[in-house]
Amino acid sequence: MSSIDLPENLDEWPEDPFEVLGVARDASERDVKRAYTRRIKLFKPEQHPLHFRRLRDAYEWICTYALSDNSTATSDQIVLDTSATLWNPMGPAPATPTPSPAPADQVSSRDRWQQLSSAWQQACAGATSEVYAKLVAQLEIASDVELYTRLFWLLFAAPEIDTARAPVEWLADGIARYGFNGQLAALYIQELRARPEEATSERCRRMLAAQQQPGAIIDLLSARWLAFDALDIQATDRARWADAIFDDVEQVRPRLRLFDEQALSRALSMAIEHLSWRPTLRGADLAKLLTDEMDQTESLSRNIHYQLDHLEGVIIHSGAWRRAQRAQPPKEQALLVATILESIRAGALQPSEENLAAMETCLQQIAVAPGDALAALDFIESKGSGVTLLFANMLNVLHYESEHDRFLQPNEWRRQRILDFVGGDRRSSGWTQYGQWRTALLDNCLRHCVSPRTVRELVADNESLRRADGVHLADLIASDVALDCVFEASRLFWA
Q1: CATH 1.10.287.110, domain 3-75, yes or no
Q2: What residue spans define the domains of the chain?
Q3: Cβ distance 42 to 3 under 8 Å?
Q4: What is the mean pLDDT of the chain?
Q5: N or C: which terminal CB in the chain sees fewer CB atoms within 10 Å?
């Protein structure tokens, strides 16, 4: 199979890692590496992240569980073994290399699925205790990922049927047997988001210590550190979470170094970002240590100059954010300042779609009191230069086309209302005191659904709107990032 044989639709990809890379089962390490390189050139991570992850998992599986056994195993013996590997992109993998004789009561996969579906319907009908006992008994006969998943959901929905066990324990048991991947890993990550205290459990620490595949280690670290972030908000001793992240790095470093330096550099980069956005100076100090390590390790720094540049920007921006966070705002602005700063931190560490729920609270507070929000953003910018621009970038990412957008088109009536407002203040020279006048401008923009950008375009050619110092009103509006932020946040909320 050549590279062009892999379709764009990920669901149509084969399950066998050898077929994914298009190599024979007796391929040499050099051939496997070349095939992997050809694949990732077609499915680049920035354009096809899910495709790239599948390719990476296939490559790591072959390197770990096939190439290491080539000296003693025949090509027919190298097959997927879910008891030893994390490869499981589409569900349960094929048989183990040395299958034992099937028990007499073993059934086919199709029949087993029908049995599980039938049992689940019985549970939904009210027989939860009986079905739970049957599923637990099934573990002694033949287990699979689906069985652990059903046990988790059954105990999650009816915790009274097994008070001695937490639902998450079924996920942990399944992950211990089949690896941190697929639906078990996805459910465990959701559990960490819903109950971040799970990240501090001995169960989670054991799970991290047991992982060997770089992809699984990175995914678990990411979810665990995001849970630390959630706990950090409520903690009194906030420095402890920075130390916990640093300890995790020390624990996984030897394992990641065994596979490749790119996996290690990715883990270090993640740690630096999480540590940098800690409110305590302890996090910043540890981030600096890891950054120096990446910069000074020749094998790491040789191929990741762009990554080091990005991390340098992270350290600068997070430092400005930290200065604003540690400053004492006026009492009437304290809540808005704290909400905006926390939204910026969350947006820097989480994908925009996962941060949307947290952003909704921030957008609501801004939309309800736009004048106070403008003052809060001014305070933040005065204490941490450039932080307001970070917030503006977050709002741009959240921007989406909606039915509300049609009201932002500057029709003739809206155009005239803005021109009347600016023209009236032009005669009184009120706009020349821009710091005071901008609040009235914001009010008119929100009232007439006209963005500051549109106002800037409307007045750009009017030379009478130039102050004695040569600064034009359009230039003042263009440089007012806080004004744009408040208008865009209000628009997003009401949209």
Answers
A1: yes
A2: 3-75, 114-324, 329-495
A3: yes
A4: 81
A5: N
